[in-house]
Structures are given as structure tokens and as C-alpha cells.
Amino acid sequence: MNDILVLGKGVLAGLAVSAPVGPVTMSCVSYTIAKGRRAGITAGLGASTVDTVYGTVAAFSISFVIGFLLREEHWIRILGGIFLAGMGIHYFFRRPASLKEELKRESAHSAYVSTFLLNLANPTVVLSFLIILTALGLPRQKTRGENLILVTGILLGAMLWWVLLTIVTAHFRNRLNDRALRWMNRIAGVAIGGFGLATFILAFS
């Protein structure tokens, strides 16, 4: 298969998995508003790292990992739901400092860790990659070189989404005040907590 075609399909897969609105999106937007473009991109990098790891599992069809995720999906959803609900409560009740103080308050490292853990709590992303890669016409059996190119495309696609999201959010950032930041935290808290509750309920369905 043509390497450029494989890379392009990897980019599409990375975009398709990253783009849906979820807790990671809300967290990335929140970091961008509170701390600026650099923090938003760093948060996106944390999410992209996990997407790349899960995309690697799907691309190389690492059967024992996929089998484990399928077998333990019930407990993964329960623990992931509890984690997301806890993050939602934290965001909702967190009292933000002023925008100027927020710029000095947390390091970019915390943004990376936060979105890394949020995305890590949803390992069913592997199954999403399997479905998307199959829909894009990629065979399960590929050469190691093709898989590496595919994974590179997934990373590029994921980062492309988070960079675009950060740029758009940062564009409107200067129009917000401290009151808007407080409401942004509450909205992010409700959204993340809601996703956590939904994940927890789905574990028993």
C-alpha cells in the first residue's frame, strides 16, 4: 500500500477519534482559556499521547491487549466513570483565580498530566480505532513499516485537531473575564462529570 495513502488514513483516524466533544475537549478548552495557547497545546499533547498508544495497539493488532480490554470492559468503565465523575466535581467546585493569576498558578506539565489521565480512563478508544481503521479500508495484516507510518499519521491527526481547537479558543480568550472563567469551570465540571456518570451506567447495561 502507498505510504502517503497510509499516512493520510492515519491522519483521518487521529482526527476522527479526537474530534468528538468529550471530557478531554472540555479540559483542553478550559486550560486554553485559563492559561493560554501554550497550556492548551500541552493539554492536547497529553491526549494525543494516549491516542497514539491506543492507536498503536489497534494498528499492530496486539491481540492480548485488545482481548484484555474486551474482557475487562465492565470494570474499566466502572473505574473510568468514577475517575471522570471525580474530575468533574473537582472542576465544578474549583474556585479559579483571576486570569492574570492563573497564568502563574499551574505549570504546563499539569495540563499534560490532566488530559493524559482523562484520555487514559477511556481505553475503549482502541475499539474505536479498530472500527475506523477497518472503515478506511486498512487490512489487519500490514508490514511493520506501514504500521509505523499509520501510527505517525494518527499522532499528526490528533495533534492537528488539538492545535486547531486551541487556536480557535485562544482567539476568543481575550474577550472573557474572570466571571466567564468561573462559569467555564462549572460547564466543564458538569460535562466531565456527566460523561463519567454515563460511562458508569453503561458498565451495567
Describe the structure.
The protein has 205 residues and is an all-alpha fold. The protein has one domain. It has ten helices and no strands. It has helices at 3-18, 23-35, 37-59, 63-71, 73-93, 99-105, 108-120, 125-135, 144-173, 178-202. Helix 1 packs across helix 8 (125-135) and helix 2 runs antiparallel to helix 3 (37-59). The longest helix has 30 residues, at 144-173. The protein is flat.
User: What's the number of domains?
Assistant: 1
Low-confidence stretches: none
As a percent range, the share of helical residues equals over 70%
- Major sheet, described briefly? none
Shape: flat
Q: Which characteristics define this entry?
A:
205 residues; 10 helices; 82% helix; single chain; mainly alpha
Q: Can you give me a brief rundown of this structure?
A:
With 205 residues, the protein is an all-alpha fold.
What is the topological layout?
Layout: H1 3-18, H2 23-35, H3 37-59, H4 63-71, H5 73-93, H6 99-105, H7 108-120, H8 125-135, H9 144-173, H10 178-202
Helix pairs in contact: 1-8, 1-9, 2-3, 2-7, 2-9, 2-10, 3-7, 3-8, 3-9, 5-10
